[in-house]
Structures are given as C-alpha cells and as structure tokens.
Automatic annotation (TrEMBL):
GO molecular function, one term: glycosyltransferase activity
Protein name: Glycosyltransferase
Keywords assigned: Glycosyltransferase, Transferase
Pfam families documented for this protein: UDPGT (PF00201)
Domain of life where this protein originates: Eukaryota
EC main group: transferase
PANTHER family documented for this protein: GLYCOSYLTRANSFERASE
Upper classification of the organism: Eukaryota, Viridiplantae, Streptophyta, Embryophyta, Tracheophyta
EC number(s) recorded for this UniProt protein: 2.4.1.-
Family: Belongs to the UDP-glycosyltransferase family.
InterPro entries for the chain: UDP_glucos_trans (IPR002213), UDP_glycos_trans_CS (IPR035595)
Length: 507
C-alpha cells in the first residue's frame, strides 16, 4: 500500500495543478444536498468544481454555490433540463420529492436516465479531469468513455450499509429463514450483525429482482476509480476499510460534508435557495428555539420522501404531546399530509407552548446545531445520520425504507449514539403511506423522554460530534482523504488503498 499523498508536500516549491471536476447527483434533496456540499468542499481545496443539477434543484441549491464563487472559489452550477415529456412525465417535476405519488417514480427514473446523453455531450464540450457521480446513476460512470476521464462513485450512504447490502446480495442469508421476523446473521462483516427480512431494503428481499441489482452494483464497481463517502473514520472505520478491501477500490471518507456550511446563510437556507419564505421560516424556527432551555427540544423530521398515513401522524403527534418535551416537528410537504396550521392548532391544544409545526422544510443543519436541541427523531437516511453525528445530537431511529434499517443498526448497535423508536418493518418507497400505525403514542412518549434524560447517550453523541469536527480539520482523517483524492485524480492508476488516518499510520 502506497502512503497517502497530500496535495502538496512541505518540500514542494509550487503546488501541482488541481483538477477540474464534475459532481452529478440523483435529483432529490437527500442526494443533491450532500453532493452540493461535496462540490463546495473540493472547491475550497482548490479544485475547479461544476455541480450538474436539474433546473429545479439548481434553483434550490444556488445560493451557497453563488456565495462560494463570489468568495473566489472556482465553482459553478450547470443546469440540465430533465427530459420529462419524453419519459411520459407531466407536471414539471424535476426532483423526486416533488412527485405527488409513487406511480410517477417509474417515468421519473426514465427521465433521469435520459439525462445520460446530455451529460455525455457536456463532458465532450467541456472535458474535465474527474467525475464524481451518484452511485445510483450508473450511466454517469460510462458517459463519453472515449475521453478516459476517471470516475469516482459518491455512495450516498455509509460503508457499513454498503457492506451489509453487498453481503446480502452475494450470500442471500435472508433466503434461509422461516419467517419475516426470524433473525439471521449477515456473513462476512467485521462485527456480528443480525437482521430480519422485515428490515431489509427492497432489492434484497426474496423474490425481488436482486440479480439485476447485483449486476448493476458490479458494473458500477468495475467502472469506478474509487468510492467517495460522506463518512469519517471514527464513525465506521472498520467498514471503510472493509468496503475498500472487498471491492478492491480506494475509499475516500471525506465527511461529514455538511460541516462545509458555516453558521451563516449557507446553513440557514441549505436546500431552499434564496427563497424569502424559506428565510422567514428559518428565522421563525430558530427564534422559537432561542426561547427553550438547553437540550430540552426533540427535533422530528423524516426527510423529503417519507409519507406517513394520517393515523401514524396522529399517533406521533399525541406521543410528542404526552412526552412532556418541547419539540419541532417537520411534517411532509405532500398534499395528503394534514395542513400545518390545522396541525399546529392541535399541537397548541395538546401541548401549549411546547410544540412548533413546520411544513415541508426546515433549516435542519442549523436546527441540529442549536443548543436547545437534545435529540433527533429521524428516518435514518444517511444525510440525517451524518448531520446528527456532526452536531453531536443523539438519534431516535425510526427507519422506513431502503437502507435505513442498516443505518439504524450502525447508530444504535455499533456507534451507540442512538436508540430505536421501535419500528420493526420496512416498506417499499410509497408503501409507508398505507402501513398504518408502526409506532404508537405510548412508545413515542416513552422513548423521547428516555433519550432526553439519558446522560450517557448524550455524552456518546457529543463525543462523536467532537470527532466529526476533528476529522475535517487540517490533519484530520477526512481532510487528508480530500487531499488524497485530489492527487489520485492527477495520478489515475493508483494501487488500492483505504483512506483513513489510522490505516495510513499502519501502512
């Protein structure tokens, strides 16, 4: 294993040229937000960064990018028009969270695939030194192959979940159990990890078209020059090393990327551009938090895609009221969700002065950093997990679909920075809207009270936050990984290596 390179050694008289890089995410906030942070992170280290977005997401994410460019960083957005009509998609939807129902997910996926020739044409017209592509966009790994541009896959989740998913697809231990609730051991991992079929991602369920998914996974592995992961050594070092070992490709753990946002406008408007309404909502939420004691508020948000049925929304609301805690509750932005003013009136009646309801969007990174926030009820999407880790806030894990139960297993079972809310079964995306009550009001109230009172949990989460911040500082594992990737781009035939500070010391 060669030693990890830095961008320029202390003996250099001049730094080497830094690369021109494209960053292209799947068009939905859970993917586009961390990719935007990633592009700004690499631009802050001297790269010439172009963030490729659909027009709708370009409008949402443009503010921080424009400020970074005004501050002298070489960064810009290139907006692509989503070929929606060619895919049979109407309504002007350019982001997955804007889809009114899951029936449109198929046409939306076709439209996203139709971006492939547009992206290839962009690469031919404006060649770059590297592409960092979303792992769920395999066509980005093979666009314009004649240019020979190295491609790095941004995984979208952590190496623990990736390792679990890979093991399930390769070894299929889930096929050998008699029921959905019978635990089984996931083979080949550094730790004993047990799951049930009820907690698996759709692609790994018996009867799913898992062979096609596995073939796509291997195709991405062959095409990529390495993995770019929004993670850091102290969160999942064994799995960063493990994933690099089993795939034979370097892993660059550069997170938490949300820490590229300071305490100013970038954090306050993250994900909502310069919208006046978003700025007003951010100010309203933070002003409300300013009135609450330290660590007394539970923040509740299930991301941009989860859509609970009304009966589960009601149980959640009653449980929050029964807990006696202060809470900020972000409710879904879809048309089937209760209207925020109506829900706020219910909250005011059940928990006067203790609850704030937010419709659709909140300045999540700013909220998690606020001193009043003591716990985070989350679906365990990877962005939310890393944002909680960066803020040092304990997690109350309520997974819903995809790899979210794997993330719960990491946070609750291995990192010890969270507790489970009690969700025992997952859904195909969209199925949660018909799932009934998964966690009742008594469980919600009990777990919220317990998490806010658990000093050991708070201490472990706080320590993780300190480690996250040290990871991105000069000399930290994530800081070094950014430098290593920049040099790897300029030397496109590296030997396999794992980029974490500790593994480098042992190399």
């Amino acid at each position: 294993m060669r030693p990890s390179p830095s961008v320029a050694s202390s003996g250099d008289t001049a730094p080497p040229p830094l690369p021109r890089m494209y960053f292209i995410p799947f068009p939905t906030p859970g993917h586009a937000l961390p990719m935007s942070d990633l592009a700004r992170l690499f631009a802050s280290r001297g790269a010439d960064a172009t963030l490729v977005l659909t027009r709708g997401n370009a409008a949402r994410l443009g503010g921080p990018v424009a400020r970074a460019a005004a501050a002298g960083l070489r960064i810009r957005i290139h907006a692509l028009a989503l070929p929606a009509e060619a895919a049979g998609l109407t309504g002007g939807h350019e982001s997955a969270d804007d889809l009114p129902n899951r029936e449109l997910a198929g046409p939306f996926a076709i439209a996203v695939d139709l971006l492939a020739p547009l992206f290839a044409d962009l690469l031919r017209r404006r060649p770059a030194d590297a592409v960092v592509f979303d792992g769920v966009l395999p066509w980005a790994a093979t666009a314009a192959p004649e240019l020979g541009i190295p491609r790095y896959a941004f995984t979208g989740t952590g190496c623990f979940a990736l390792s679990v998913q890979r093991a399930l697809l390769l070894h299929t231990p889930q096929d050998g159990v008699a029921s959905d609730t019978e635990p089984f051991l996931v083979p080949g991992l550094p730790d004993p990890v047990r799951l049930t079929k009820s907690r698996l991602a759709e692609a790994t369920l018996p009867g799913a078209d898992s062979r096609e998914f596995l073939n796509r996974m291997f195709a991405v592995e062959r095409a990529t020059a390495g993995w770019v992961v929004n993670s850091f050594a102290d969160l999942e070092e064994k799995y960063i090393e493990h994933y690099g070992r089993v795939t034979g490709k370097p892993v660059f753990a550069v997170g938490p990327v949300c820490l590229v946002n300071g305490d100013g406008d970038d954090t306050l408007e993250r994900g909502r551009g310069g919208e006046a309404a978003a700025a007003a909502e951010a100010a309203r939420v933070l002003a409300w938090l300013d009135t609450k004691p330290a660590r007394s508020v539970v923040y509740v948000c299930f991301g941009s895609l989860t859509r609970f049925p009304r009966e589960q929304v009601a149980e959640l609301g009653m449980g929050l009221a029964d807990s006696g805690a202060n809470f900020v509750w972000v409710v879904g932005g879809d048309k089937s969700a209760p209207a925020a003013p109506v829900l706020q009136a219910d909250v005011d009646a059940a928990a006067p002065g203790r609850g704030l309801v937010v419709r659709g969007w909140a300045p999540q990174v700013a909220v998690l950093r606020h001193a009043a926030v003591g716990a985070f009820v989350t679906h365990c999407g990877w962005g939310a997990v890393t944002e909680a880790a960066a803020a040092g806030v304990p997690v109350l894990a309520w997974p819903v679909f995809a790899e979210q139960f794997y993330n719960e297993a990491l946070v609750v079972g291995l990192a010890g920075t969270g507790v489970a809310m009690g969700a025992e079964r997952g859904y195909v995306w969209g199925g949660e809207a018909m799932g009934g009550v998964v966690v009742g009001r008594e469980a919600v109230a009990e777990r919220v009270r317990g998490a806010l009172a658990d000093k050991a949990l708070r201490r472990r989460a706080g320590e993780m936050g300190e480690r996250a911040r040290r990871a991105v500082e000069v000399g930290g594992s994530s800081y070094e990984a950014v430098g290593a990737l920049l040099q790897d781009v300029l030397r496109p035939t590296p030997e396999p290596m794992i980029i974490t500070s500790r593994s480098e010391e042992r190399a």
